[in-house]
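Sequence and structure are kept together here, with a separate record for every protein. A complete record is shown below as an example:
=====
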Amino acid sequence: MLPKVAFKVLLYVGCFTVLKGNCLSCGRRAYSIKKFFSTTEPIWTYTTSGRTNIRCLVDQVNVMEKSSVIFTRSCYNRQYKVARIFHGTFDHFRKKHMDVKPEGRGIKFQEDLLYISEDNSCAVILVTTKVCAKRLTYDLRIRNSHIKHRPHPKCVHEYEKYERYGKVLYDPSCQNILARKGMARLYEPENSRCQNRTN
């Protein structure tokens, strides 16, 4: 009789927890990478775990559609501005996921949103590439309206779960890349990144 009563109590507590909205797995936010990209603001990669020589990596959305986005990714590589247009395709079932391919020929990759702040100002994004082998890179990205301040503490905390010693790509002079006109060289993944890989 006692085991039966105990089972009923556990069942009641479990149901009550779910109804109260305290279920840990049920209460998690469904992060949407589309929501983070749904902005007219430039999006900066503030910190990355990748081994790279580039600076001032920034995304600017050109076209946002229901299931896809077209954006321009720019940066400085050895003092030259490089840029390329990318096409991102959202996953209806995995809202955090986006498949990305460059316009024309080039390497495809995936981006997954691991965390986004409540005000959508910053996010932690996992980038999966296969330049030489499967490789994981963790980025802390921030919208332009919040880049003058220190990253949101919660964003930093979430980022440090994956990478504690990331390389900072942004500094105030990076704002110049937004106003810089003229021809830009083609942005390509660097071969040097092959040295840091995950099989």
User: Anything to note?
Assistant: The two ends are 54 Å apart (CA to CA). The first strand starts at residue 43 and ends at 48.
